[in-house]
Write a structure and sequence with these properties.
- The protein has 80 residues and is mostly helical.
- The chain has one domain.
- 52% of the residues lie in helices and 0% in strands.
- It has four helices and no strands.
- This is TIGR03643 family protein.
- InterPro entries: CHP03643.
Length: 80
């Protein structure tokens, strides 16, 4: 994995409204692999904070989201 890809995966993992499925579609990393990456890349306290933040969060899991939301990220997230 290239450094800029790793950085982007970490950034997407921290984003509240980007589901793990979007990370998997973009980079091929399933939720468990993202968790492993975050565990290795973050300080232990930062990892715990991140896990608390994303655990059970409806916006991080496509299956828990409203069916009205069909995108993987906010439309204004990527500036062109």
């Amino acid at each position: 994995m290239l450094e800029h890809e790793k950085s982007r995966i970490i950034e997407m993992a921290w984003e509240d409204r980007t589901p793990f499925e979007a990370i998997e579609e973009t980079f091929g990393y399933a939720e468990k692999e993202v968790i492993k990456l975050m565990r290795r890349a973050l300080k232990p306290s930062s990892f715990r904070l991140w896990r608390e933040r994303v655990s059970g969060r409806k916006t991080k899991h496509k299956a828990l989201r409203s069916p009205d939301v069909t995108r993987g990220y906010c439309p204004t997230q990527y500036k062109r």
